[in-house]
Amino acid sequence: MLGNLLLVAIGSAVGGVGRYAVGLLLPYDPTGPSLPIATLLVNLSGSLAIGLISGLAMPGGILASVPSLNLFMTAGILGGFTTFSAFSEQTAQMLAEGEPFLVVTYATMLVWGCVASAAIGLYLGTRI
């Protein structure tokens, strides 16, 4: 139990640093009408990765016999990397600034994009 908590904690730190680095590379200016590309990219790529890892962890997959690695990567790294809270705050900010078109565009891209990315990852993971 303690070992699993430590795996998740270390993975979360790695993922959080990765998310911060993407934000530095693709800064978001909340004062103008623009989409938060870093958050979108982080959540889309994280969804693809978690789908892929989940597929690889299914019975017969190459990660099926290593549940601790699966936990480290999904709950740890990807849990720290992806961010629903930033998406929520940025969407609320756009709404407060009177940008309903951006809100609908961003929310649609993120939600359906993440579901599609996870499905693609899962499909690929079960084929490897």
From TrEMBL:
Belongs to the fluoride channel Fluc/FEX (TC 1.A.43) family. This is Fluoride-specific ion channel FluC. It is a multi-pass membrane protein. It catalyses: fluoride(in) = fluoride(out). The chain crosses the membrane at residues 37-57, 69-88, 100-124. It holds the Pfam family CRCB. It is found in: Cell membrane. InterPro entries: FluC (IPR003691). Keywords: Cell inner membrane, Cell membrane, Ion channel, Ion transport, Membrane, Metal-binding, Sodium, Transmembrane, Transmembrane helix, Transport. Na(+) binds at G79, T82. The lineage of its organism: Bacteria, Pseudomonadati, Pseudomonadota, Alphaproteobacteria, Rhodospirillales.
